[in-house]
Amino acid sequence: MQFRTQIAISKSNYPIDYNSKIMSLGSCFAVNMAEKLDYFKFQNSCNPVGILFHPLAIEKLIDFAVSGKQFTDNDIFFHNERWHCFDVHSDLSNSNKKELIYNLNAIIKSINQQIKESTHFIITYGTSWVYRNIKSDSIVANCHKVPQKQFKKELLSVEKIKKSVTNTVKLIHAVNPDCKIIFTVSPVRHIKDGFVENQWSKANLISAIHSVINTDYCKLITEYFPSYEIMMDELRDYRFYAEDMLHPNQVAIDYIWERFKETSISETVFSAMDEVESIQKSLLHKPFNPDSESHLKFESKLREKITKLENQYSFMKF
């Protein structure tokens, strides 16, 4: 007897393996999946300028990197004793103006190289709601706790999102025509926007993404992974949410990861992933007696396992 419906997900035509170089961009759910990729020692980079929630923010970042643009004094502002940039997360904010600009440009240069070298992009959109800075008449990625009266809240239309998604794909493929792009919508509920407004926002994202990936230009280079749909339909119970009842809890994250693994990661690396997981768990082991013979043997075997994997995959470091 089945007590839930399971979403049918087609296996990827371009599965990820340990030769893949992955760049993850987007909402906090992108971070959740990237942490799994990091845990299993894939070659993965995630959100070099911090979490980005909406399509226009991701498009602008890719455009900056691909075009080789530089951040200047005009791109930053002073607020609450720190310098900020509306295009990046507050994690990068700095009390030193020159240091912030230097760091931003160093990151952009690094992203340019990563875009050229990546085999896979995983792009996770969180919302269609955006904030437009009234003074500059530009949509920001992060408000940095600047007073709300300085912004106007807008909902991106399906057409605007379609244009942004298409531009993002074209920008990436202008410098890396062989890479594949996996789009997904974050299952995190943005209830501060309102219950109806959150669903409206997600609907616009889903409609736009599917319109783009089904075009002749994109259907051979893009795929969709249904993170949002898994949360809404397979895990439709509050026991799969964190205490805030908005974010997926660890059980949900683990389950969505398993669905991603079985459909988007090559079966040829499953045994290596098991070896990595065995090592990761062993590294967390705390012995009762560190000097005992049994523990010394345990450590010796663990070192052998690590050496074997690091010799096989030079990029792995434990």
Question: Which secondary-structure class do the elements indicate?
Answer: alpha/beta
**Architecture of the largest domain, CATH level 2?**
3-Layer(aba) Sandwich
Give the CA-based shape: globular
Average pLDDT reading: 96
For the record, what is the CATH homologous superfamily label of the largest domain? Answer: SGNH hydrolase
Put simply, the count of helices is: 9
CATH topology annotation of the largest domain: Rossmann fold
SSE order, one letter for each helix or strand: EHEHEEHEEEEHEHEHHHH
Multimerization status? single chain
Q: What portion of residues is helical?
A: 40-55%
Rg for CA atoms: 21 Å
Pfam families: GSCFA (PF08885)
Keywords: Hydrolase
EC number: 3.1.-.-
GO molecular function: hydrolase activity
Description:
The protein is an alpha/beta fold and 318 residues long. The protein has 2 domains: 21-265, Rossmann fold; 268-318. It has 9 helices and 10 strands. The protein has helices spanning 28-39, 55-67, 97-117, 158-175, 195-213, 227-234, 250-264, 270-283, 293-312; strands at 21-26, 43-46, 76-79, 82-85, 120-125, 129-133, 138-140, 151-155, 180-185, 222-224. A 5-stranded parallel beta sheet has the order 2-1-5-9-10, with helices on both faces. The radius of gyration is 21 Å and the shape is globular.
